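Q: I have two molecules that I believe assemble together. Could you output C-alpha cells for the complex as a whole instead of separate predictions?
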Amino acid sequence: MKKKTIRAIMALVALGVLFAPAAHCEDACCPAVSRDLAQAPDGASAFQSLEKAAACCFKQQAYAECCACVRDAAQKNKNALNGADYFCALARYRQLKHLEEKQLWDEYFAKGNEYREEISSNLDKVFKETRPQDPVHLAARLLAYRFHKDMEDALAEETLASLMTAAAEYARTAVDAGLLKEAAQALEGYNERGKSKELYKMYINKTVAGVTAPGELSAMAFGFLKDGNLELAESVCDVYIGKLDQSADKKAAVAELARLADAFVYKDEGLKDPQYAEKVFAKIEDLEGKEAFGEELLYLRGYNLEKAQEWARAKDIYADFLAQFASGARAGKVAFKLGVLSAYCLRDLKAAREYFQKLGEKEHADAHVIAGLYQLGLFAQWEDDVARAKGAYAKILEKAGSNYPETTALTKQRMNEIEENKLLDSRIKDMLDASLRPEYAIFDMSRVQIAASKYNPAKGEEVSISSTAAAPQSGCMQVNLEYFWAGDGIPASAGPEATSIKTSFKEPGTKVIGLLVKTPSGLLDRAVDFVDVE
Amino acid sequence: MKSSTNKRSHASEVTGHRLLLLAACGLLLVVCFSGFSKKPRPAVYIKALKNSRYQLIVANRPYIVKGVCYNPIPIGLNQDYDWWSDPYKPWLVDGKLMQEMGINTIRVYRTGENPESVKQVIRDLYENFGIRTILGHWLGFWEYPCPLYGDKEFHERIKKEVLDMVAAYKDEPGVLLWILGNENNYSCLGHVNPWSTEEIDREADPQKQKCLRAKIYYSFINELAQEIHKLDPDHPVALGNGELVMLDAAKQYSPDVDLVACIIYRGKTFGNLFKSLKVTFDKPLLLSEFGADAYDALKQKEAQDMQAFFLEAQWRQIYDNLAAGKKGEGNCVGGTMFEWSDEWWKHNPVDVESLRTHDTASNWSNGSYYFDIEAPKNMNMNEEWFGLVGVSADEKESGIDKRVPRKAYYVIREFWKNPAAKKKTEKKR
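A: Yes, here they are, computed for all two components at once.
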C-alpha cells in the first residue's frame, strides 16, 4: 500500500478515536445529573437526584467520573453539597465491591486503602454537616454500617447503633419513609433480623399512619407478600390484626384472620412463615376460643406446627383435633401423626403405643392403621418382646393383603429377623435408641436437620430428602461424618456417605424418615421428618 | 593551754561529722543497689495497658509480631525430614527474602532432632536478618494411638520434653516465646484425636465428658506454663488454641499462660474474635496461624490474588486491634501467617509420587473463603498451596527448591510499610 494511503488511514483512525462517542458518565449521565442537582430546591430533592445519578453512573462503573461530576454540580447549589460527599463515599464503596466481585485485583490492591480512606472521610463530613432528619444523613449512616460490617471491623457495632438512632430520629419527622425500608432490607441482608424488624415497623407505622380502611391494610399486606417481602407483610399484618381485634364483628374478624393465617402457613412452594401463622391462629383462639376452629382450620394449624417442628404444640393441636373430629376423614392420619410425634419427637413411648393401639383396633385397615401396626411391631421388637412383635406383624399381613406392598415387605423383613434369631436392623435400632432412651435426650435434633423437596407428594412421585449437619468444630482437621438413614422409603443404596437420598412412595399415608449422623467418636445427632403421601 | 584543747575538740567534732556522713552515704548506696532496686525486666514480656490492652515488649520496645509459620520441607520429602540439619540451610535463603518482606518472626511447630542445629538456625536468622523465633511443642497431639492427656506417664514424658526444649534454647537471644500445643483443644470435644480416661468413660453425658477432658488438658497446660516460668522467666508462654473453643475452661484451669496463640481461619476478617477473647479469657492474642491458600478449587487454577486479598484484609484487622490501634480492642500482638512456603507432602505424606506432585485436591472445606466454596462437595481449602512463596520443582537456587514469591508477599510487604494506622498517626503530627 502506498505511504500516502497508509498515512491517510492512520489519520482517519486517529480522528475517529478522538471523536468517537465514549461510554463515559459525562456523556450519558452527567448532563441530567448536573441539571437536576443544580435545580434541586432543597436537600431532599437533591438526595433524590443523587439516587438517580447512582442508578445511572454505577451501571457504567463510572465511579470517579461521576463523583467529579456531582461535586461540580453541587458547587452551584448548596442544597446538594452534603449530598456530593455522600455520593462520592457511595461511589467508592460500590467501586470497591465491584473490584472484589470482578476480581480486578490490580486496582484493588493499588488503590484499596486510598478508597477506604475516602469513604471514611467523606462520611465524616456528612455526619458533621447534616442532621438526622436529613435523608442524606440516614443514607450515610447506612453506608457507614455496610462499609464497616463488610470488613467486620471494630466499628461495625457502633455504626449499627448510630444507624438505629438516626433512623428513629428520621422516622419522627420524615415524609418519605422509603429510606427506612431500604435500611431494613439491608439489615435483613446482614442477618440483623431483630434490628431489621424494628426498622420495618418504623416504616410501616409511617406508611399506614394515614390508612384507616382495614381493606387497604389487608391489600397492602398481601401486596408485600406478592412482592416476596415477608417482613413488611407481617409488619402490616400486625397493624391490621390490631384493628381486627377491636372489630365488633368477631365472626368476620375470625374469617379474615383465617385468611391471613392461610397466607403464612407452611406450604411446599412459596413464601411462608409458620411461626407467624401460629401467631395468627393464637389470635383466632383468643378472639373466639377453640370453637372458632373447624375441621380444616384445626388440621391446618396442627400441620403448620408440625412443619415448624413445634412438636409439643403440634401434638396438643392434633389431640384437640382427634377429640373433636374422631370420625372425620383425617382422624386416622392425625392419630398416626400423634403416635409418631410422641415416639420420635417427644420420647413418649407410652403415649405413642396408646395411639397406635387405638388405631389398630379399627375395622377398616387403611394406610395409617397398617403403618400404626408396623410401628407397634417395631417398638415390641426393639424391646425384645418377640411375641408382641410377631402379633403386630401378623396382623399387618392379615389386614394388608396385597394393598400395601411396601409395608408388607418391611414387615416380612422384621419377621425374618425374629424367626432367624437375628437382631433388629441396626439403623432402625439406633434410631429407636436415639429417639426413645432417656440417656439419649441430648440428641435433640438441633445439630442435624433433614428436609424433603415435597411434603405432600403423589404416589410414585420422586422426593429428595437432604440433610444438614452442624459439623463439630475441628479447625483444619476434617471430621468424617457418616449418615445412617432409617424409616420409610430408604433406598438400599443409601450408604454412610449419602448426605441426601431420592425416593418415592407407592403407598399413601404418613411416612417416617429418620437420619442419624455419626462422627468417629459417636453420634452427633439425629433428625426425623414426616412426608404425607395422598 | 585552753586554745589547744579547743582546737583538738573542734577537730574531733569535724572528724565525727565526716564519719557520720560517710556512713550515711554508704548506707544509701547499699539501699540503692540492693533491697529497693528493681529486678531486671525479662527480655520479652507482656505489658498490660489500660482497658485490657496489651503489648509485647522485646528489648524494652513494643514489638508487633509480623511473622510466618515456617516448615521448609523440600519437594519429594515429608514431615519426617529434619530440615534443621539440611546442609543447604534453606533458612539462609528464606531469611533474606523474609527480611526484605518485613518479616520479623518465624513460628516453628516443633524443634529439630539436634539441639545444635536448632540453635544454629535460630542464631542465623536472628544475627543475619533480625528474625526471632517462636518455638513450639505439639504436646503429643499426633502420637499414636492418641494423645493420652489423662495418663500420668504421658504427662511426665511430655513435660520433660517441653522443659528440655526450654532449657536448651532459653538463652538464645533469637528466641521470642514458647507456644504449647496447636489445635489440641479440639480433642477435648471428642471428634478429633479423641482420648479418654476411666472417669470420662463412666460419664454418660457427652457435654460433661468434654468438660472433664478440658479440665485435664488445660490443667496440664498450666502446669507446663508454671514450670517454664520457673526455668525461664525471660520469655512468655502461649497457649496454642484452635479458635476460642473451650477457652472458658482455659480461663479456669490455665490462668498462668501469658497469652493465647489462636489458630483462626475465618476468611476475610476475624469477626468479633478480639472482643470475644477479651470477654472469655482476657489475655493478649497472637494469631499464630491464619491465612489463605493460593489455589482456586472451583476454577482449578492458582489464584494468587485471592490469597493476597484475604491476607491483606486479615492484616488490616490485626493492625486495627493492636494496642496502638484506636478503633479496636487493643489486645492483639500480631500474627504468624500460615505459611512461608508451600509444602508438597501435605495431601498424602506416604505416597512417594504425591510428594513430588503439587497436589490440587482439597483437604478441607471452609465457606469463609468464598471465592471457590462452590467447588465440588464444597472442598475448597488446598493444603499444599498456603505458601507466601511457591517452591519450584524445576529450578534450584543455592541448593534448595527455588522460592517464587506470590502476590501476597508483595501486597503484605507494602501494607507493612504503610498500614492505615500509621498513616493516620503521621497525619496527626
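A: One point stands out. Chain A has three domains: 25-210, 211-329, 443-533.
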